Structure formats: structure tokens, C-alpha cells
Amino acid sequence: MQTYLVGGAVRDELLGIDVKDRDWVVVGATPDEMLAKGFKQVGADFPVFLHPRTREEYALARTERKQGRGYHGFSVYSAPDVTLEEDLKRRDLTINAMARDECGELVDPFHGLEDLQARQLRHVSPAFAEDPLRILRTARFAARFRPMGFEVHPDTMTLMRQMVAEGEVDHLVPERVWQEIQRALHEQEPGTFFEVLRDCGALAVLIPELSDDDRLAEALAALRRVAQQDTSTEQRFAAVLLPLSAEQAVTRSEAMKAPNDCRDLARLTCHFKTALADLSSTEDSIASALLELLDHADLWRREARFEALAQVLDHALPDDLRTRVKALQIAARAAVGVNPRELLAQGFKGKALGEAIRAERLKRIEQALPVSNR
Ligand code: ATP
Ligand code: MG
Description:
Blueprint: E1 2-6, H1 8-15, E2 23-27, H2 31-36, E3 40-42, E4 48-50, E5 57-60, E6 62-66, E7 74-78, H3 84-89, E8 99-100, E9 106-107, H4 112-117, E10 120-121, H5 133-145, E11 151-152, H6 154-165, H7 174-184, H8 190-200, H9 202-206, H10 213-227, H11 233-240, H12 246-255, H13 260-277, H14 286-296, H15 303-316, H16 322-335, H17 340-345, H18 350-368
Parallel strand pairs: 2-5, 10-11
Antiparallel strand pairs: 1-2, 1-8, 3-4, 4-5, 6-7, 8-9
Helix pairs in contact: 5-7, 5-8, 10-11, 10-15, 11-13, 11-15, 12-13, 13-15, 14-16, 14-18, 15-16, 16-18
The structure holds adenosine-5'-triphosphate and magnesium ion.
Magnesium ion binds at residues 8, 21, 23.
């Protein structure tokens, strides 16, 4: 049997970047032989094993055939006669379809090295069309490698457009889509992920609210600024959904099966965007309007979430709203200092306690705000 290093590790080494995890392909072996050598089988569907010492993944060479629509329905064929080239052929992009043998020699039947040097993300074969997840992976690799000059090869873009037109993206399960989006949000240039999806038509299926050019531009500008900071998935996702109404953000997050924390921060961000824009036109004083917003965000129980929200607003909102975000932060720092226990000790109870807390918070916000804002 022969063992080859494959996929991302070979690619990243050729690009001169750190190799995170190494994947191996084993040709000419059976599962029993692997088990006899002390490998542990993982995953019931695929013949994939963990090395007894390094814990790295060793997969028996395999071929895949699509049987149904969407991500389900792949039949996997693995046997000692499956060649390395057959295994590489089922992979998504040529730069991901290179291998290195035990002597360190590059095995590159699909010219991945040429594409790597020409900075092209190109599909290995027409079988690319069998798995729509590859559209999202390609967009994600574009987001990662765009700063190094990579782009999606025109033929691959054409193929992705056909796949979308044939309805392939409609059949992706939300969990897989979310996993790719979540990863994409933390790539080098996350905006590129959404641009590639727009270019092939997949964005209109996945986040139709952003198919309007102006809305996408607003989302990408927000995402760029938020992603320049050390920000969480929740914060980056909220930036993407910024052009939506709070209600739309909730509906979209739920359709995508985004985690609740992502949905909630997106909802708050969209709500605050509108509320801060309307702030001057409210009849109440600015202080009480800000207090209402702090209530809405449940600052009192969710201080860390509020900080995350304020950071997104501070970077994602247009410049003319920036002073209002500052006022909101000043109000939050002032109001959060009110200690309900002290008021309780002063004898306030029940409804009166609630009113006293509110009055004290309002007073402190008014004192803290610059005079022009009161
Ligand atoms: P990363 O640095 O993100 O780990 P990677 O290239 O190693 O990038 P993995 O998701 O770890 O990507 O997958 C390992 C290899 O398996 C890829 O390089 C690719 O050859 C192949 N692969 C993974 N998913 C698919 C897919 N859906 N279709 C085709 N090939 C795939
Ligand atoms: Mg990998």
C-alpha cells in the first residue's frame, strides 16, 4: 500500500503558508489491513481512519457517484484497486487535488500547480456539478485567497451559474450552508464570499434580501469594517444582515438555521439602526428614548451582548449616526451603574421599585449626556 499527503496541506505548503491539518490518502489497502496496523475507523459512511499516534486522518482512496439531488445520495466506492488519480478526480478544485508521495514527489494529474501559480480556482472535472456545496466552498476559498490574487476561473463560474439555474442550491440543507457561511465570515476577505455567490446567482437563493445592488453594497461595507476588528461570528453576521429590517433579519436567520445568538444580534442591530436614525424625531427626550433602547437590548441582564452590539453599530453604521452610537454608549455606562439593591434597601418594593430604578437610570443618563443631547 502507498500513502500520500493530499488536499489543503499540499496546497498550503506550495503557497508558503502554515499547514493546519494534514490529510492522507491510502491506496491499495483494505479496512482490515488498516485496523491491523492500529488505525481507528471514524465515520460509518466513509473508510476514514485515524493514525494511532499522530491522530491525523487517513482515508482509503475512493470514488463517489451522485445518486439523488442535493447533498444526499452519494454512493461511495472504495477498494484496493481505486487509484490515487481516481480519488483526486472527485475533489472540488485543482489546487485541492494535488498529492505528495512518500518520497516528497508531487502528483498533480489535474494541473493544480499551474492553477496555483496562475491564481485560479478551477474545478477538477464536470463532476463538480454533482455537489452544490462546492459552490460555497469555492466562494470561501476565494474569500481566503483573494488577497493573494486568486479568482474563480471563468469556466468554473459558468458551471456554478448553470448549477444555480438548475436549482441545485435550493436542495442544500441549511446546516451545511450555515457551516460554510460561518467559516467564510472568518476568512481573510469575507465580503468576497458574498460577491462570488452574487456573481453565480446563489446569493439570490440563499439571502434573497441582498440581491438588490444597493443593499449588498451596504452589507459588504458594514462587513468590511466589522471584519477589520477582532469580532465574533455573531457580529460579522449582523453586519451582513444590516440592510434588512429587524423582522426580515429574524426570518432569514431562522430559515438559515443560524444559531440563536446570531439571530438575536442581527435582530438587535437592525432594530437599533432604524431606531438611532429616528432618534431626533422622537417626541420624548433623547435620554428616555435611549433608556427605552437599553431596555430593548436588555442591557441589565445581557451586558456582554450589548457591548458586542455597540461595537457592531460603531463600525457598521454610516458616519452620520456615529455620534448617536456614542450617546448610546454613554447612556449605557451611566444607567448600568444603578444598583437595584440600594433602592430595595431604601424601602422601595414591587411596582414602586421598578419605577424608582427607571427614574434613577433616566436621571443618570441625563446627567451623563453632553448638553446638546439632552
Ligand atoms: P482547509 O484549509 O479549510 O481545511 P482543505 O482544502 O483542507 O481546506 P477540507 O474541507 O479540509 O479542505 O477538505 C480536504 C480536501 O477534501 C479538500 O482539499 C478537497 O480536496 C476535498 N474536499 C472536501 N470537501 C469536498 C467537496 N464537498 N467536494 C469535493 N472535494 C472536497
Ligand atoms: Mg483541511
